Amino acid sequence: MPRDSLGDFEQLVLLAILRLRDGAYGLRIREEIEGRARRTASLGTVYTALERLERKKLVSSWTGGATAERGGRSKRFFKVEAAGMLALRESLSATKRMASGVAALGGVR
Amino acid sequence: MSRRRWNEAHELGHDKSSHYVDDIVIVDNNGNLVAIQGKPGTGKAAFVRLIVEDRSDQIPFQFLSAPHRGSAAADNLVLNPPKVAEFLMLLLPMKYRENLVGDAEEEYWTRSLPTFGVRKARLIFWIQAIHALLIFSVRPLAGIAGIAWIGKIVDSVLSQLLR
Question: CB of A33 within 8 Å of any CB in chain B?
């Protein structure tokens, strides 16, 4: 078991950050999760997950630029750290191993 | 573009338009004036929104109509996100406060308002604010007080509303 086992939603957040590359901030992460995973989440939910991941040092963040449509408020961008990549890989492969050969899942290997 | 078009439109005798802020004027492809309201203070065409009451830019131009300037409908039209909800979000933890409020506002202007109209967009903003407050501020306290189950119920209701 890895030191920092990931929750289901944390996995989605990490994958969203990786997909968005340099443009990963709260709202875009949420939209990515909604669009791809078809899972509804509030901004608060996304930020609590990000806060948890940052506390575990799986992601890092920095403050970006402000735009008028944000009322002049800045964005906080997120990046997956090496530890985050490792935790994500371990978590995904654990899920895959568990699902492998389960007939009820329709022959997932 | 806005000011010039606005003047042109007035010269053409169009008067069925609402005019709240400077950057709200546009003419459709057929030369007809449609009422557009922009975000006050931006002064940029990029932030012009095709919003007339609860209608949005998803609706073809010919179906858009605008209240007369000074009419009750026009006077009641408030486009900004709810101020009280924004104020409540000041209770969020300092670290993510600015970013979270900024994200909520960006979502309001770029997604909720054009898609759903004013009323639903403002409701969504309220839900985001309450949910964020619940998660960041109230839930930890509720855990201490042993009433976390109330938070879970409210959390679940708000999540359903966001669907």
Answer: no
